[in-house]
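Re-running the complex after MR caught last week's input typo. The corrected sequence lines follow. Everything else is unchanged.
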Amino acid sequence: MSDLESFRVETREWLEANCPPEMREPVRDEGDVYWGGRNASFKNDAQKAWFEACREKGYTVPEWPKEYGGAGLSPAEGKVLRQEMARINARPPLSSFGIWMLGPALLHFGTEGQKQRFLNEIADGKIRWCQGYSEPGSGSDLVSMQTYGEDKGDHWIVNGQKIWTSYADEADWIFCLVRTDKQNKYQGITFMLFDMAGDGVSTKPIKLISGNSPFCETFMDDVKVPKSYGDDCPAYVGEINRGWDVAKYLLGHEREMISGAGGGDRTAAIGAAMKRNAGELDPVLRAELAQFDVDALSYAAMGEKFLDELKVGKGHPAQPNMMKYVGTELNKRRHELMMAAGGSRALEWESEETNGGKGARSWLRTKANSIEGGTSEVMLNVISKRILDLPGA
Amino acid sequence: MPLYYDDDQAMLAETAQQFMAEEGAIAKQLRHWRDRDCKDGFGHGLWKQFAEMGFTGMLVGEDDGGLGMGHVEAGIVLENIGRNLTPSPFLSSSVLAATALKHGSDDLRGRWLPGLIEGEKVYTVAIDEGAKHRPETIACKAEKSGNGFKLSGKKDFVVYGASSEMIVVAARTSGSDSDADGITLFAVPQDASGMSHDSVRLVDSSMASHVTFEGVELDGDAVIGEVDGGREVLNAMLMAGRVGAAAEGVGVAQGAMDMTVDYLKQRKQFGKLIGEFQALQHRAAHLYSEVEIARAVTIKAAQLLDGGSEKADLMASVAKAKVAKAAGLAVKEGVQMHGGIGMTDEYDIGLYMKRDRALQEFLGDQYYHAGRVAEMSGY
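Corrected-run output:
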């Protein structure tokens, strides 16, 4: 038996022994997933047991090195673990922007001291991070952002406003783009890390058309950010004034995450489920569902290819933009079709049968997919420029 | 298995790309034979070169003198065929007929495989009856007669039929037209008496026959596999052919897209390169995405087929449908973005549109396969 096959057998046995049955049910709402942080609480014992088992094993961040809280799995082993978790519908033991976004940035750009501290805190679910990128006047044109950090020697005084900071009201720390040189557009931004519990940081949830508030406005009013948190642990990632490089690198991860390339709901066929719910399908709707399923199953193969290539450094570096574009457009189409198949029942905003209007709220929420993390139009611009090398793009 | 080419496959891709770009180029093959009104629709010299490259018998098992490769490898050759619009009996002979012959007796394989491997002979398959691909219904009849069978009926869209030394024919040996069982496959030699071809040139300059069988007498040893048990062989052949056609379609899409993107970087209007216009950039970027995805799902389907997965049949249909959408988009956008010259015979982009049209129909179009995806998924 090859190493990988015996790893699969071991993994299967480990999951069987450690993943409680309740954690193999589909995720119904945000409380079904543990996000960690200072103020986090577990929804039930099963969630706690599952998280703790994974934390002990390094499986909250399986492919991170062991010294930073991971399990040090190889890409191939990581894929096996994902497949085995998917096979039993295991929920993620821990979700966070620290895992998806700050972690990869620190692994790439961070100092040893930063990795030791922040990666372990993320892996252990101790600190919940949020991302401070967009500003009211800087959406697609992100680099025009103006939140400013005035240099005071050993610290900065930061003033400004961020918007669309996901779950900022529940987060502990923020990774934040701050302008530190007003004369230099691209090379005048620093990628700062700071505690939101400090003086001068406030958040205000934004109510969306879905009725939910996954995003906030975040205000910085004379926030004092020290330049260092101790030995080899600066308060910024990369170099001062070179935060745009980190931001761009991270956007790649964000786009990859939003693309749903890792599988799950977004790449699954839906026709059969729609028929189960709706009974007979209108023949034209059935045809649309079939076309959708062709696209979704094809995109699932693309996601697999994309991730396989990413692990070994094949594939175009701008490919996450393509994945984000297609994945989000597909997800919007999925929800349009689910609403159509659901009929008047799917319109219910508050009812037990619809789990509080989950379908309708999700449908509305997906409209943001092709806006957040770079709009579809920006993605198409990037593909034109960086992949197709079209002139003037 | 990771979803990209391993080292050997990457090497084959490089070899095939270079070979096809040189020897299978549009001017050298497609236009050359078309402009001479060649009744074969392809060049036998190139077929011989395919044999020298090891392509013709790549799917044939090593015990039978082939290379024992899989559908990922065949797909690599086909993608390059598509990219260069190379007219070739590779798909019908080396993929479809070769897959059927895998299920044949030692005698049958000994009779037909060496000629294929050496590039001396060309084979094809006769499945469709009517203008649309509906292999669920087979009316063409083979009745028991002495030690053998008597074949009667009509087949359509028999690609390169008149040039083929042997045709794999799906016929009914029992039951009624739409029964799943009761099908038998036969290897019908070119000189079988009672078989006639109405050979016609198609929109893409390839040749295909309407074949009529009038009491064609066949020996029992012409049967491929089991009498009445041909459905399984037919399905294996269809899966292989669909994944192969998808791979060729990916090449057609890529070729059309490459030409078009190049053109956007050369053509000037309003004092600018037209590729500077965002209206065209976004369409080109969308097309790129579709072609990438079509390639991914095609390789996925080929891997599943090579691995003997139960999902191969579903994913073969997904791939065929997805490629049809992507390639259809590539050729339509290609002609539109080329503008007026895209409509001229002198420019190659129109040739891509024609080949795509023929490939769309071959072994089921996107509507057929999307419908099949729905049925297989249970709705």
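None of the earlier attempt is carried over here. Chain A has three domains: 3-95, 129-242, 260-387. The CA atoms of residues 143 and 362 of chain A lie 30 Å apart.
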